[in-house]
Design goal:
It holds the Pfam family Xlink. Keywords: Cell adhesion, Cytoplasmic vesicle, Disulfide bond, Hydrolase, Signal. One of its GO terms (molecular function) is fibronectin binding. This is Tumor necrosis factor-inducible gene 6 protein. By secondary structure, this protein is of the alpha+beta class. The protein folds into 2 domains: 92 residues; 113 residues. It is 13% helix and 32% strand. Strands 3, 4, 5, 6, 7, 8 and 9 form a 7-stranded mixed beta sheet that branches. A 5-stranded mixed beta sheet has the order 10-12-17-14-15, with no helix packed on it. The longest helix is centred in the first third of the chain and has 16 residues. The two termini are 12 Å apart. It binds 2-acetamido-2-deoxy-beta-D-glucopyranose (2 copies) and calcium ion.
Length: 275
């Protein structure tokens, strides 16, 4: 137990260290990308960017402020952020996929604050950068193969990618590792791939993987899964290819014994998984 706490303390330290890069928060769901659109907030926290600053944040990374249409296109494939941000032409709003009482006034769609007359107001930013798209994304297809950025070339340093898999309600996601080669170290602190059995990278931690041993298959409990890939400032490796396929959930009439019959499949455990 103590070892476990210690491990999480280490993880936390590491997360903190990863928190900011170039004045932009880099350690959470805030970096979620969909169809080239992603959310950014200031180094100093939520709602700190004027229009000019928001524009500069996106341009610094090679993109620009997303248009309303781009934000809506991303929303349609699952981009959901509960924070208002600047869009192109001084519009402000945020994308809601899943209605909740504390966000979006219980509605889905773009919550639109309209074109702001006062560009000194402070909000977050929604950037659009299709060239950054290969690092992460949202997948809703029934099967897909995704790759580390640049694959089959080695991945680069200082990457942070999120993949969100959202399949039909009532289906499960079966992850299969086809190729896997990530800088190895004893606790996977340098570069790693993390798998979460949930909508975000906060809940449902399944495991953290590095090295060149092919991880076992993983099957989700629900219809969503999140994968997060972080690399540090030195030493890269070959990267990975991961396939997922959807499976229908075992029907309620079965007594559950049938669900674990697939040889090598590992239900929710990783190299550093918690049970
Ligand atoms: C514009 O917004 C800023 C920040 O909210 C505020 O300080 C300023 O007074 C506003 N300017 C006008 C003209 O309303
Ligand atoms: C297991 O599944 C098979 C069909 O896939 C079914 O015929 C059988 O009754 C199931 N066994 C249990 C214990 O649920
Ligand atoms: Ca590395």
């Amino acid at each position: 137990m103590i070892a476990l706490i210690f491990f999480f303390a280490l993880l936390w330290d590491n997360a903190e260290a990863w928190g900011f890069k170039d004045g932009v928060l880099h350690n959470s769901i805030w970096l979620e990308r969909a169809a080239g659109v992603y959310h950014r907030e200031s180094r100093t926290g939520k709602y700190q960017l004027t229009y000019a600053e928001a524009k500069a944040v996106c341009e610094y990374e090679g993109g620009h402020l997303a248009t309303y249409q781009q934000l809506e296109a991303a929303r349609k494939i699952g981009f959901h952020v509960c924070a208002a941000g600047w869009m192109a032409k001084g519009r402000v709003g945020y994308p809601i996929v899943k209605a909740g009482p504390n966000c979006g006034f219980g509605k889905t769609g773009i919550v639109d604050y309209g074109f702001r007359l006062n560009r000194s107001e402070r909000w977050d930013a929604y950037c659009y950068n299709p060239n950054g798209k290969e690092c992460g994304g949202v997948f809703t297809d029934s099967k897909h193969v995704f790759k580390s950025p640049g694959y089959p070339n080695e991945y680069e340093n200082e990457q942070i990618c999120y993949w969100h898999i959202r399949v039909k309600y009532g289906q499960q996601i079966h992850l299969q590792f086809l190729e896997f080669d990530v800088e190895d170290d004893t606790a996977c602190m340098a570069d790693f791939l993390e798998v979460y059995d949930s909508y975000d990278d906060i809940n449902g931690f399944v495991g953290r993987f590095c090295g060149d041993e092919l991880p076992d298959d993983i099957i989700s409990t629900g219809n969503v899964m999140t994968l997060k890939f972080l690399t540090d400032a030195s030493v890269t490796a070959g990267g990975f290819q991961i396939r997922y396929v959807t499976m229908d959930m075992p029907s309620k009439s079965g007594d559950g014994k049938n669900t674990t019959s697939q040889g090598k499949t590992n239900f929710l455990s990783g190299k550093f998984g918690i049970m």
